[in-house]
Write a structure and sequence with these properties.
By secondary structure, the chain is of the alpha/beta class. The chain has a five-stranded parallel sheet with strand order 2-1-6-5-7, with helices on both faces. A two-stranded antiparallel ribbon has the order 3-4. It has a two-stranded antiparallel ribbon with strand order 8-9. Helix 4 links the parallel strand 5 and strand 6. Helix 4 packs across helix 6 and helix 8 crosses helix 10. The termini are far apart.
Amino acid sequence: MRIDVVTLFPEMIREQVRYGIQGRAIQKGLLQVATWNPRDYTLDRHGSVDDRPYGGGPGMVMQVQPLRDALHAACADGDPAPVIYLSPQGRRLDQARARQLAGQQRLILLAGRYEGIDERVIDLEVDEELSIGDYVLSGGELPALVVMDAVTRLLPGALGDADSAGQDSFMDGLLDYPHYTRPEEINGMQVPDVLAGGHHAEIRRWRHKQALGRTWLRRPDLLDALQLDAEQQVLLDEFISEYKAGN
């Protein structure tokens, strides 16, 4: 996969993707990352990329020409790809959308700054607006990196353990189950006996029950979107009964 990022701060992108899963994916040849700076496409000697908003108000707005030219250069440098603008007004990123994006051969991410970008860039060049949450950041670089990380870990071969991505939170619509490692006891708190028993079927059942129960406790809205089968309903009912008995 190739991901291009149009950004005023390409060094933020290039530095971050050196680490972790993205860095390993690049080393394995699974991921290519390119950056495009709108300042390289300005027409004045000052390298201006923003101006005051029409109608007044605080802040500055990124101009059409440098952004369009940077996007056109990115689009012309490889296979056709969707242009995604990172914006609080966009659809919220979730695991299902990350899986869909991971199926693309190429993505072009547009990271805005200041008060935003001229709306005509969105109308003319953007295929989708995507948000990482209902809050405002100083720019689109961090959201772009979040999208890149969520997508990269889903690429075949990107993770050391091929099963890791399949067991992440949200992959089956549920939150993840609790995890434990050595030592077996910390401050009187023990690892659950079932995990130390070595019975794989019981471990799988316990983990599934915990995932259902944790989702019920913390994100019941996710359960509303699922159709639980008979076994899942039994596990959830067990968890709720045990939880209420202990609380």
